[in-house]
Amino acid sequence: MEVARSEIMSGVWLSHIRTDKFKTACLSVSLLTQLKRETAAMNALLPQVLRRGTTRYGDMEAISRRLDELYGAAIEPVVRRFGEIQSVGFFASVPEEEFLPAGADTLRGACELLGQLLCAPNTRGGLLLPQYVDSERDKLLEAIRARVNDKISWTISRCIEEMCCGEDYAVDRLGDEESAEAIRYQKLTKQYRALLQSSPIEIFYCGRADKKRVESLLRDALSTLPRGEIDYDIGTDVRFNALEAEPRRYDEQMNVSQAKLVIGWRLGEAMEEPDPAALRVFADLFGGSAASKLFMNVREKLSLCYYASALCDRHKGVLLAYAGTEAARVEEAKDEILAQLAAIARGEITDEELSAAKADVHSALRAVLDSPGDLEGFTLSAVVSGAEYSPEELDELIGDVTAEQLAAIARGCECDMIYTLTGDGSEGEDEEEEDAEIALSEEELRAFEEENDGDPDETL
To answer: What is the DSSP letter of 261?
Structure first.
């Protein structure tokens, strides 16, 4: 599959994949902006509010009826983060017209509706409706507060917040509770107008329609899109070194029965000229699968943890290892996790370990080709990083990755943060799963690591 890119309007780019592989096409519109604490919550709220109604389809019931007329098409709000870039917009699934009654024009209808949602929201006096804003703000607050309920994801987030304090990367894709509580409809309307005028917009299409038709439909649908000076000065600031000579420690207590450990590294020299293939294999070898160093040694051989895994953000250059263990064994687990990375740095990588890591990455990349949604996320992630490669192209490079390349990445890693969460001794502690082969599912990892490269299921 080849991605054809073209600028169809000022600062609006279309990535088009022509394929007959799927019976459902996908179409997404993503507004890109710098992730900042003061605006993150407003940006995350916007697609939810816009989805409530347009000038033509005044409420969600009217929008639902229109989607039913389009033979069950679906359009959902999406909020994602790629390094220090926040992406907000909509993801649409559109039944292919070849499999529908003659005269069905689902792609045109979906484009028109997307244009309405983005450019013609239901307003009063030019302002977003306060009842819609207040209702969706309350839901956003619930989502932000609920993050603590998933202790694994929560501890990873807390490690990132402390490790990257002072950096935009510390900001969650949904923003924070204080900022969300302060959102009012006038303020949100102002932010909405600013985003439409200045944000680079990435549109992705994967389906049977040719590129010229898709471009024409999108230009018509977005004909009223207000554009000003486009802010291309967005990106991710990569820190190559740890903040201090020794790893910082941050210990926290909460009502948990199982201690959590997260260790964060800066990838260092590996981010000067990032090799996406080598970084993927490295992350998998260290802690990305059931054949990884962490799983086989820290969990299986030494039984120090209920789970031990790792993930790598290739946009930011951050490596995180996370584990669940008994409070009394946190230090043992920490030492062994550090020892496993040191072993990779010394080149202690067997042929079997290298082959297993490559096979796992091969499988993940091939799986991307089987899902329009995963293709959309992969493509958007590649565009944001400035490295526009296809899954097939990246897959071909995996076989050339050497053990020495992985050792070099490990040698360049600098430990920056060791975070632990332990029980506070309160009664009625939460019962937690004490055993797991994979600590987080792919869906749960999407907010932190783009193995599915920003899959559009990452919504509120």
So the answer is: E
Contact 56, 116 (CB under 8 A): yes
3-state secondary structure of 413: coil
Burial of 13 (0-12, 13-18, 19+ CB in 10 A): middle
Task: Confirm if 442 and 452 have CB atoms less than 8 A apart.
Answer: yes
Q: How many residues does the chain have?
A: 460
Phi-psi region of 405 (alpha: psi -120 to 50; beta: other; left: phi over 0): alpha
What is the DSSP code (8-state) at residue 54?
A: B
H or E element: which one contains 253? strand 248-254
Instruction: Give the number of other Cβ atoms within 10 Å of residue 261's Cβ.
Output: 25
Going residue by residue through the chain, which has 460 residues, state the pLDDT in tens, using 9 for 90 and above: 788 999 999 999 999 999 999 999 999 999 999 999 999 999 999 999 999 999 999 999 999 999 999 999 999 999 999 999 999 999 999 999 999 999 899 999 999 999 999 999 999 999 999 999 999 999 999 999 999 999 999 999 999 999 999 999 999 999 999 999 999 999 999 999 999 999 999 999 999 999 999 999 999 999 999 999 999 999 999 999 999 999 999 999 999 999 999 999 999 999 999 999 999 999 999 999 999 999 999 999 999 999 999 999 999 999 999 999 999 999 999 999 999 999 999 999 999 999 999 999 999 999 999 999 999 999 999 999 887 788 999 999 999 999 999 999 999 999 999 999 999 777 444 444 433 433 443 334 434 444 334 454 444 5
CA distance 97 to 107: 8
Note whether 460 and 174 are within 8 A (CB): yes
Q: 322 - beta bridge partners?
A: 262, 309
DSSP codes of every residue in 381-398: HHHHHT----HHHHHHHH
Host H or E run for residue 366: helix 351-368
